[in-house]
Amino acid sequence: MIKNFLLISVRNILRNKGAAYLNILGLTLGMAACIFLFNYIQSHLFYDQLPGRNNVFRVETTTSTRGEITVRDAFTAPVVGPHLAELYEGVNDYVRLLPFSEYGSAFFKYQKHDSLALSVFVEKAYYADQSILNVLSLKLLQGNQDSVLTAPNTLLLSATLAKSIFPKQIEENTSIIGQEFVSAAAGFFEQTYVIGGVFDDRPVKTHLKFDLLASLSSPATGMNNPGMQHSEVIYTYVLVSPDFDISAVEKAATSPVSSAQMDTYEKGISLRPIEDIHLTTDISNEPENGISPTLLIFLSVIAVIIVVLACTNYVNNAIINSIERAKEIGVRKLLGITPTQLTLTFVGEALLTNTLAGVLSIFFFLFGTKLIVMYTKISYPPVGYSNMAVFILFLIVLILVSTLLSSAYPAFHLSSLNPIDSLRGKTSVLNSGNLGKGSSIIRSLLIFQLTSSIIFLSAVYIVYLQLDYMERSGGTSREIKMSGVFPGLPGANEEFTNQVDRFILHNKGEGIRGIGISNLYQGKIKTMQAISGLAPVEKQEDGIYVKLFPGLKDTTYNLYVIDQQYWKDSSAVFRAGRNFRNMGDDFNSLIVNESAAKALGFGDPEMAVQQTIDSRGGYHMVVGVVKNQQPDSPPSIYVTGFRHRTYMDFVLFYQPNQSENISTFLQEMKFQIGTYFPNFFFLSRGFENRLALEEGMLKMFFFFAIIAIVIANMGMFGLASYVTQKRTKEIGIRKILGAPTHNIMLLLLYDFLKLILIAYLISNPIVWFSAKEWLDDYPFRIGLDPTLILFPVLFILFISTLVIAEKCWQTAIKSPLDSLDAN
């Protein structure tokens, strides 16, 4: 029986090749677009699928105003993890991760045995507790599972990174434990790290990517600084018991930090399941960009619409082809085939057509992904072997759903045709009430197709106009705030400082409206290291420096990079000497605390001022001594200047001209700033990131708009065939009565103009409301006016007219006698 159904389906497809090709093409395009969106959506839904993930939570800092959470921050203070583990029995373990640098990367030098130094750049690196192996299920390939990250300055490398640096050893399964890396540049911040092990690569779909881990007990972290323990600079994850009540922790952790009569805010913490982190976008200091669930829902709706659009074409073509298949259906009914068997036949045809379209859609999908990667900046996930089963299952479900959508009404419609009317011929079928209902279905579905096409094309047009306005600014001057970091220059002396001053003086008021320069990161100390080998020296007449205290014991000092803004009230802080002057003036100066002055051999703070300190070949002068923060504060030294990492905040003034847009302006400013500050790196790229994202979305919208328009015009072509068949005799009579051909053409086109007008009236409020909501996020935006949707409507009208004109023209010029003889 199945064989007979299959043979009948194949024969009918081959007999109506034109309709079959249109059906297969429309369904192929619709399925390919749906698969494309499905692969993108599902890749973002299943992040951080780690063993025991249901019990792993990230601790986040919350700020509440009048009892409502207004700010969420992925960073917490280092004390939060230990305190939670101490206070709650259900907190089984915790791990803290500190970014290796402000933008998460690390730079090392590895001295190979052949005396060649190998530079190693790691894009994502963190300092971490030993417990990371347990909390985040990190698999160790080399090293001691119980103590690999306990010792200071110990490194863990990912398998990929280890193989890129030590290919021979990894291939031969030889241990690389004990190899030494040197971090950063020479001078104060040179630190030696030792490899303690290798871990298996992190999964691709995780919000927390890294290729290198260093021990959190390393001196460079500054964790031994009491002031850092309460600064929100670290990521904290906790492993809890399955029955642990996290709401009790969040409620107890809220505590007021300041209040006023009308404005009270509180600091607290919240716990977020690790698998939910990627699906959030309102968290500050995220290690990786998340994705909005609203966007995923929006893309899911688009996928459904595209598939429904493709299925509507099949429905329309099936109803129209029922005119040609009328006698076949009548004969089969008179031979005794039941309505159920007839329905199964039509469902079988739809299943075969959808299966062919499904197979072809895979090739369209693969080709489309290549285009997306080549021509957009959208990070599109590849289809790998790990998710191949899910992909195939979705394709099968898609084919079955598409078969159901496309065959349900046609099967009911065709099986319900009156066999007597069917045997009388086309005219009888066209005039039957059954086909009249089919005509209403065709028109309704076509209105849906046209409405969707107008909405898609309007979205493309509005996004394009807004991006073009952002690029060219529409003649509007504006200020753009950008921040960046200068990594420091070992030779930054007085000449370099004067060069910077000339740069600021020359540019301020032109391209740069304002500039702020500081060694502090957002007002806080960001860079801290532990150093040793410091000794007070005195210059002799022959120019040789000799130690003041030859028997002085070597001490480890905490080294902090600050500037003159760090101590607001210097009179209450300094025991002797002065604060740093303007940024860059004290490039060879030091400020020490009382403990450091004593460790350097100076019993009286006044004695330390103006003394020269040798730091492994570099000479610095002590200009001030500050009080200890605590009686037992460790020896601490403070430096400043362009020799160290420096943060810059720019207010760039953009005044457009005919040959320049914002992107060009920013590129010119980057080049200009980079000329004076080598290796300068912009931190804030909000404008560029958003522009790149929406340019990618524009191209993706254009892709879907083209599919929608193609499918809609297939429907138009089908409807044109139906209308011309139905009105053939009417046209013949009109021509006999003297109606000119162009009047008949206008009469036929009028039916389609009404459908486009209805589609416009439906789509107009949808487009208007959506565009207003989207544009409200922009401080500078285009204005809303009727032409924003009028242009897409005119474009679709033009394309549709071309599609249907040929079919209508053939009918309009047909001989009236032939028209009257049509059966």
UniProtKB/TrEMBL annotation:
Keyword RNA-binding: no
Entry membrane topology: Multi-pass membrane protein
Segments forming domain MacB-like periplasmic core: 22-254
Compartment(s) where it occurs, according to its Swiss-Prot or TrEMBL record: Cell membrane
Keywords: Cell membrane, Membrane, Transmembrane, Transmembrane helix
Top-level taxonomic group: Bacteria
Protein name, as recorded: FtsX-like permease family protein
ABC3 transporter permease C-terminal domain segment(s): 301-419, 702-805
Pfam families according to UniProt: FtsX (PF02687), MacB_PCD (PF12704)
InterPro entries attached to this UniProt entry: ABC3_permease_C, MacB_PCD, Macrolide_Exporter_MacB
Membrane spanning stretches: 20-41, 295-315, 342-368, 388-412, 445-464, 700-723, 744-768, 788-805
